[in-house]
Each structure stands twice: as C-alpha cells, then as structure tokens.
Amino acid sequence: MMGPAHSLSGAAAWLGVGAAAAGAGHPMPWPVLAVGALICAGAALAPDLDHKSATISRSFGPISRILCGVIDALSHSVYKATRGKGDPRRNGGHRTLTHTAVWAVLIGAGASALAMGGDRWAVLGILFVHLVLAVEGLLWRMARTSSDVLVWLLGATSAWILAGVLDRPGNGSDWLFADHPYLWLGLPIVLGALVHDIGDALTVSGCPILWPLPIARKRWYPVGPPKAMRFRAGSKVEIKVLMPLFMVLGGIGALGALDLV
Predict the structure, then answer these.
(1) Is the pLDDT at 84 greater than 80, yes or no?
(2) Cα dihedral angle (76, 79, 85, 86), rounded to 10 degrees?
C-alpha cells in the first residue's frame, strides 16, 4: 500500500487496541490513546526504510535517504544469506527483512528499552521521529507542499507538548506498566510495523511476514490472500475503499476507547 493508507491503518489499529483495552479493564488515558495513534501512524511507514523512493526516505532529508540505502543493502544481504531453495534471486532488499514480524518486534523492543532506560530526551526523540512520519503519512498533501523544516518544527513542537502532557500524573506515562514509565511506547511501534506488513500482504506481491519460517521451500514466503483478492498499491480499491474504511474503523475504535458508545 501507499504511505497515506499505511498511516491511516496504523492509527485505526491503535484506536482499536484502545477500545479492546478499555473492554479488558485497562482503559487508556486520552493522551496515551492520541499519542499512541500518532506513533502507530508513523511507525506504519517505517518498514519502507528498505525502499529508496518511499515516503520515509524523504522525511528527514539526506539522513533518511542514506539510512534507506544502508537498510536496503542490509536487507538484501540477509535475504541472500538466508533464502531457501524456492526463493528467487533478487537485486534489492525491498519487502524483505523490514517487512517481517521479527523486525517489528525487535524495533518495538528497542524503542521501549530506549524510552525506559534513557532520559527525557530519548522519549522526545522517539516521539519526534514518529510524529514527523505521522505528518508525512496522514497530512501528506500538506507535507509535500511544505518545506521539510516546517514539518520537522511541527514534529518537534508536538513531541515537546505531548511529552509534557504524558508526564502529568494520571495522563499515562506509566500506563499498563506501573513500575516502568514509557515501556508502552514500543507497543504502537510494533503494531504499526505489523499493520504495514499486513497491508502489503494484501497487494499483488504479498509480504514475507513469517520469515524465517520455511513455507513451500521458501524462507521468504510472500504471505497473502488468494491472488484474486489482492490489489495493486495505489489502486482504486486502496483509495476508494480501504482508506475510508480505516477512517470509519478508527472513529469507532476511538469512541469505544473513550467509552462513548
């Protein structure tokens, strides 16, 4: 899928988790619901770090372009080193390592460890990166016609304000893990990456979410529904059906999370 659809699906997924958490007796304070949705929207773009033309490659100027090149090379190397007999040869790393559940869990765990073990600046850094990505995905028309500096300023200002809100007693810095403030920050990052992978699995090429499990003589088996049910990225199905559906589901999830239904 394309960037805007990925971000909408990420936000909708976290709002759905908020509704489920409320039903399970662990309701999210509204700042956790809002910040988590934004982080998840941004994290839903991050697996495309292996694609030099993706939205994320433009999000942080030359830094993200260089990083995308490095991740592409790394992913390609891992693919070549671990591919099974049925896996085809390929020239790049797109939709390989960063499009797996293993990657999603590792990135989320790393973010949680950083947020919990670092100081306030670590939390601000995580928020800044994902809020910039959320702007790029959710407000993509504005982001593409604005300068990068304005988007970065919006991300930095929002990160500073939201971190301050979360730090207030009862606002959720210690949600779900009372003795470990900000441990939960990794959860929307894991969820965003997984939602991205599921979205890509619905497209023509599928997605190797289950790597390194061997399936049909392949380590990088492209998981997906029957081919007749798949669509091309950027198609009318994605724009006219899925994106409005994500918005509706997100609204329902938000109402459930805030106990308004």
Answers:
(1) yes
(2) -80
